[in-house]
Prior knowledge:
alpha+beta, 3-stranded antiparallel sheet, 3 helices, 8 strands
Amino acid sequence: MHIYERPVKFEDVDAANIVFFARFFNYGHEAMESLLGELEGGYVKLVLVRKIGMPAVHCEADFVAPLRFGDVARIEVTVPRIGHRSCTYKYDMFRQKDGTRVATLLHVCAVSDLEKLKAIPIPDDVRALLERHKR
Amino acid sequence: MHIYERPVKFEDVDAANIVFFARFFNYGHEAMESLLGELEGGYVKLVLVRKIGMPAVHCEADFVAPLRFGDVARIEVTVPRIGHRSCTYKYDMFRQKDGTRVATLLHVCAVSDLEKLKAIPIPDDVRALLERHKR
Amino acid sequence: MHIYERPVKFEDVDAANIVFFARFFNYGHEAMESLLGELEGGYVKLVLVRKIGMPAVHCEADFVAPLRFGDVARIEVTVPRIGHRSCTYKYDMFRQKDGTRVATLLHVCAVSDLEKLKAIPIPDDVRALLERHKR
Amino acid sequence: MHIYERPVKFEDVDAANIVFFARFFNYGHEAMESLLGELEGGYVKLVLVRKIGMPAVHCEADFVAPLRFGDVARIEVTVPRIGHRSCTYKYDMFRQKDGTRVATLLHVCAVSDLEKLKAIPIPDDVRALLERHKR
C-alpha cells in the first residue's frame, strides 16, 4: 500500500462547494504518479525516456461523502490486479482529519508504448513495483 | 436522446497529447447540463433558485479510442434508469468526423437538496424531462 | 470586434464561490480560438497542419467584479497591436445579463513555429484577420 | 522569500506540449497558499474560520521559457508591496534542474471579507507575515 496525501485546493470545488466529482480522478492519477515515484526516475522517466505510459481503459468511482476546501484527502493506493499488459489501481480515499471514507476508485490502465499508443507487456521493474502493492 | 457537441480545447490534452481521462467526466457533466437546458431556466435555475443539484454517487467509463486537439466529441446523452431519488445518465461519446466511438460513460446522480446535501424525490418536471430521454 | 459568449460552468468557481481568477485566462484563450475560427480551418488547422501557434509572452488582467455560476461572460475580443512577429489581444469581459464589466485582459502572443518554439513573421492571412479586429 | 516547488503534472500541458499559460497563475496561487501556511492554520483557517480571502484585483505574467512535463517549477514568493487593504505577491519561477527563469508573475490581492466581498484592513498577523517576505 502506498499513501498519498492531497490537500483540497481553493479552486478544486464546484458551485455546490464540494470537490467536483471528476477531480477525484485527477487525485487518483496524482496518487498513481506518487506510487510510480518508487521507480528510479518515476513516472517522468517512464514516460519521457522509456516512452511508456499508462492510459486508462476503464475507471469507476463510488462517492460516499463530500470533500471540501480545508480537507486533506488521504489516498491509499493498492494494485488488486496485474495482468500481462494491463493493471488495476485502487484508490481508497479518506478525509484525513476524521478517517471518513469519501470515495473508492478503480483505474484500469493499459501499459502502453506511447508512440504507437499500443499495449505492451509490463516491464519487469514496473511489475515488481506493482507486485509490492498487490492486495 | 440529447446531443451535445464539444470541441477538444487546446488545454484539454495531457503529456501523451490525448484528452486526459478524467476530463471525459467534465465533458459528460457539460452534456448533462446541456440536457437540463431543456428545463425552463436550465441547471442554473435548478441549482441557484430551487437549490436542487445532482451530485454523483457513482460513475464509470470505458475508454475505447483517444480524442485529440482538433477533434470534436459528439456526445449522445440518454437516461437508462430513473429511480425515486436518483437517476443514471449515459454518455455515448464519438469522434464527430468519423463516427468512431471513443468512450462510454455512466453517471449515477442523487437528486439532492444542495443545502442539506441530502437526496430528495425527483421533482415532477425533472422526471418528465428524464423520461423523454429514457432508453 | 469579435464576440464570444461563455456560460460559467458548475466547476469553474472556487471556494469563495466566484470564478477562480486564473480561469479568466482560459476564457480569454477560448475567445481567441473563437476569433481564429474566422480563418479557414480555424486555430486547429493553424496548429495541426501549419504547425503555427501563439504562445503567450505576456498577459495581464484587471478584475473589476466577480463572475458566478449562472452568469454568462460576454467577451469582446479586439487586437490593439499587431507587430511583425507578435500581436496583442484584448478581452473586455462583461456579465451578460446586466452589462457590468467584470474584467479586462491583455494577452501578448508570439506567433511561433511550434516545432522550434521560435517566433516567425505573422502569415498574411492571419495578419489580415487581425487587422479586421484592430482597434 | 518563501520557496515553493511544484512538479509539472501529466495533465498540466497543452497541445503544444508545454504548460498552458493560464496554469502559471494556478501555480502562483498554490505558492501563495504555501506562503500563508506560515500562519497558524494557514489559508484554510483564514478563509473558513475568519472568512477572510484574497481575491485578485490585478495580475500579470511575463513568460520567458517553457515548462514541460518532467520539469519542477521552483517558485520564489516575495511581497513587493503591502498596502492598507491590499498587497502584491511576486512569483519568480525557475526550472529547478537548470535554474532557467521561466516566468515572472505579479498578483495584486484585495484582502477581503469573503461574506461581503469587500476589502478590509490587513489583519495584524497577516501583515506581520507579509512584512517578513517584503523585498
